[in-house]
Amino acid sequence: MKLTYDIECRHCGAHTRHSTTVYYPTLSIEQIEARMHIDTECAIRCPVCRYRLNSSEEEFRSQVHITREA
Ligand SMILES: [Zn+2]
After folding, report:
1. φ, ψ of residue 34 in degrees (nearest 5)
2. What's the half-sphere exposure (Cβ side, CA atoms, 13 Å) at 28?
3. Please, which pLDDT band fits residue 66 given cuts at 50, 70 and 90?
4. CA of 16 to the centre of ligand 1 (A)
5. Number of domains in the chain
6. What's the confidence (pLDDT) of residue 70?
7. Radius of gyration over alpha carbons of the chain, in Å?
8. Distance between Cα 64 and ligand 1 center (Å)
């Protein structure tokens, strides 16, 4: 599936968007989101300032919004 990340960085204020294709055949979007903020090996960073956006669930939820496309 294709995931689109809307990133609103609280560190530098940049609003960015990018898309990625992932293959998690058994996971729902909620489970993917949960995995992304829990998985410390998968740092989500602001593409402008490289500030890490998922060091906590609260930071993740307030700065990263994921939408799924078919
Ligand atoms: Zn930033």
Report:
1. -60, -45
2. 2
3. confident
4. 9
5. 1
6. 66
7. 12
8. 12
Pairing of strands 15-21, 2-8: antiparallel
> Ligand 1 centre and the CA of 15: distance in Å?
8
Which pLDDT tens digit goes with each residue over 7-54?
999 999 999 998 888 777 788 878 877 776 665 557 889 999 999 998
- Domain span at residue 39 reads 2-69
How is residue 14 annotated by DSSP?
Answer: -
Residues 6+ apart with CB under 8 A from 12: 46, 48, 49, 51
Ligand 1: centre distance to CA 44 (Å): 11
Distance 58 CA to ligand 1 centre (A): 16
Tokens representing residue 53 in the block: 């956006």
